[in-house]
Design brief:
Layout lengths: L4 E5 L6 H14 L7 E5 L5 H8 L4 E5 L16 H6 L4 E4 L2 H5 L5 H13 L3 E6 L3 H5 L3 H12 L5 H4 L3 E4 L13 H18 L2 H6 L2 E4 L4 H8 L6 E4 L6 H13 L4
Parallel strand pairs: 1-2, 1-8, 2-3, 3-4, 4-5, 5-6, 6-7, 7-8
Helix pairs in contact: 1-2, 1-12, 5-7, 7-9, 11-12
The structure holds 1,3-dihydroxyacetonephosphate (13P).
The site of 1,3-dihydroxyacetonephosphate (13P) has 14 residues, from strand 8.
């Protein structure tokens, strides 16, 4: 059984008081969604603050990015060891905003994925097609290329700590959510690729999150899909009520 993972990607939002308040608000209500694993990914400068606000509540801590080197002269970068040191257990890698605004390649994402696993972090590796790629009928090919490139050299054993996230770029922050059929098609294909590249056990184990305009009113339908194992949430993760409502929907949709 795959425990649904409900992850909030706060992106470059919040400040100290609002990060603290949001984390505390989520922590207080975490018990409402016992069947789901909750995760918040604040900006790195607020990780320690958010860790303290979460306290002993059942909410995990993740970062939004990291550098692939362990330490050294890389001004402005943060390593996986540092993220672990400050209490993070997950790291989002290859988010579409990093791929398309900051020009991260599959090779960059791959190096970071390898380094994250080495540092003991669980990477959430994101893939997703642009609108023009979907319209050109290239979705499956784009996702396959990102999958292959981002996960190059990752062993079956290491895959146990990896989470995948399908985030169609055209659905991010636009209010245009993928239809359940569109999401399930890509998720099922990703699972097939896991089975082909690794084996059935890995394919059964790895969680594949959907991201892109997930809100309380559409979460139930998406999370009920056989190959959707959680959500990576942007805008709605900035409101404790919405985030918890999505987590409750995930708990209810829990597939055995
Ligand atoms: P929205 O939920 O705001 O569309 O963002 C999705 C996302 O990019 C999560 O990583």
């Amino acid at each position: 059984m795959r425990t649904p993972l409900i992850a909030g990607n706060w992106k470059m939002n919040t400040d100290s008081p609002s990060a603290q308040g949001l984390a505390a608000g989520i922590a207080t209500r975490a018990v409402e969604s016992a069947g789901a694993e909750l995760l918040v990914c604040p900006p790195s400068v607020y990780l320690a603050l958010v860790r303290d606000a979460i306290g002993n509540a059942r909410v995990g801590l993740g970062a939004q990015n990291m550098y692939h080197e362990a330490n050294g002269a890389y001004t402005g970068e943060i390593s996986g060891n540092m993220l672990r040191d400050v209490g993070a257990s997950y790291v989002i890698l290859g988010h579409s905003e990093r791929r398309h605004i900051l020009d991260e390649s599959d090779e960059d994402v791959n190096k970071k994925t390898v380094a994250a696993i080495a540092a003991g972090l669980k990477p959430i590796v994101c893939v997703g097609e642009l609108l023009e790629e979907r319209e050109a009928g290239r979705t499956a090919e784009v996702i396959r290329t990102q999958f292959e490139g981002s996960l190059a050299g990752i062993t079956a054993e290491a895959m146990a700590s990896v989470v995948l996230a399908y985030e169609p770029v055209w659905a991010i922050g636009t209010g245009k959510v993928a239809t359940p059929a569109q999401a399930e098609e890509v998720h099922a294909d990703l699972r097939k690729q896991l089975a082909e590249r690794y084996n059935d056990a890995v394919a059964e184990q790895v969680r594949i999150l959907y991201g892109g305009s997930v809100k309380p009113d559409n979460a139930g339908d998406l999370l009920a899909l056989p190959n959707v194992d959680g959500a990576l949430i942007g805008g709605a993760s900035l409101k404790a009520d919405d985030f918890i409502a999505i987590a409750v929907a995930a708990s209810a949709a829990c597939k055995v």
